Amino acid sequence: MARICVLGAGVAGLSSAVNIQSILPEADVAIIADQFNTETTSDGAAGNFGILLGRTNADICRLRCWTRDSFEWYHKICTSEDANIAGIHRTHGYQLWRTEQPPPFHGSFDYGYRILSKSELLKLPGNYKYGWELNTLMVECRRYLPWLMKRFKEKGGRVIRKQLKNIVEISGSYDVLVNCTGLGSRKLFDDKELVPIRGHTIRVKAPWIKTLFIADSDTYIYPGQDNVVLGGTRQRGEEKLDKDQRYYDDIMARCCRLVPSLKHAEVEKTWVGLRPWRPCVRLEVEMISVDDGRLPVVHNYGHGSDGVCISWECGVDAANLVKQQLTETGSQRLVSKL
User: Fold this and answer.
1) I need a surface site. Which of 39, 96, 186, 252 has the fewest CB within 10 A?
2) Looking at the whole model, is its pTM more than 0.90?
3) Would you call 234 helix, strand, or coil by DSSP?
4) CA-to-CA distance for 288 and 310, rounded, in angstroms?
5) How far apart are CA 9 and CA 164, in angstroms?
6) How many angstroms separate the first and last alpha carbons of the chain?
7) Confidence at residue 181, expressed as pLDDT on a 0 to 100 scale
8) Taken in order 148, 151, 153, 157, is the CA torsion positive or negative?
9) pLDDT band at 56, cuts 50/70/90?
10) Which residues 6+ apart lie within 8 Å of 146 measured at CB?
């Protein structure tokens, strides 16, 4: 039986683990992580399905496939009986700009977009000169992560809470590792290209808000099932997780300029987290030397703020790389029954 370990229990790790179980149903799959569900960066993600090429440096052909196929996965859930349990629902609203912008990358794969007319823009807040009407969906990880974890456990997946300091601690226990540790890869795999992008959000109780708004790229209002997400910030290279009130005050002020009634919304939760960004998403195989041997590691991390959007298809690719490694490294017996 193939022994596979996924490192990390955020949306990338869980997506990889569930897909490995699908592709290799007889394998023994474990997740090792020191943070789960609400402890993860993924849990704090706003979850709106949208990608800006200016903040994503993945290969365009791969990014197109990841975006298209991930959206199809989310759409399938959105139209199923599990939609509310998994935290996935359709959204509608507007993205507004000061100047004309190229079409949204995700507009070719989600429910579509439409350029707003001058008369329509005049009826929207902020005196913006350009904008789109958006039809997309939202993935709320506070529901989606537990939903994925339930699927993983139902198929026999094992979960181990452990903070790894060195891969040597587990190297003899598994045939393939899948690295979804995000910023943890700086220490575990000496990745010097990873950069934290600090972000702040506020979750408020505002059930009257039904329309999403995005102003430029960093101010947003996303209506969710249980609350409304207000954001945000993108602070490159910042590592401190202190909840500095000035950032939340700024977010609230910007969002209230778009929707003044938010002034009366009750704040439910504030959040700060570090997005794991690198010049290019790392989804590849590395052979590492441990205990006088060679161990294949499938890397799947560095998605930055687009991790939720493309996580599912990245997980599919990671699972296929795992199967490929079990064959190419002389472990054909491990997959012979599959």
Assistant:
1) 39
2) yes
3) coil
4) 27
5) 13
6) 10
7) 98
8) negative
9) low
10) 37
Supply the DSSP string of 86-135, one letter for each residue.
HTEEEEEEEEEESS--PPPGGGGTSS-EEEPPHHHHHTSTT--SEEEEEE
Alpha carbon 287 to chain centroid, angstroms: 26
The 8-class DSSP code of residue 325 comes to H
Q: Contact at 8 Å (CB) between 180 and 301?
A: yes
> Which H or E run contains 282?
strand 266-290
Two tokens at 300?
């799947």
Helix (H, G, I), strand (E, B) or coil at 8: coil
Residue for token digits 């990889």? 16
Neighbouring CB atoms inside 10 A of 288's CB total: 14
Write out pLDDT tens, residues 216-230. Answer: 879 999 999 999 999
Residue with tokens 């102003």: 215
Angle in degrees, CA 90, 146, 2, rounded to 5: 115
Residues in the chain, total: 338
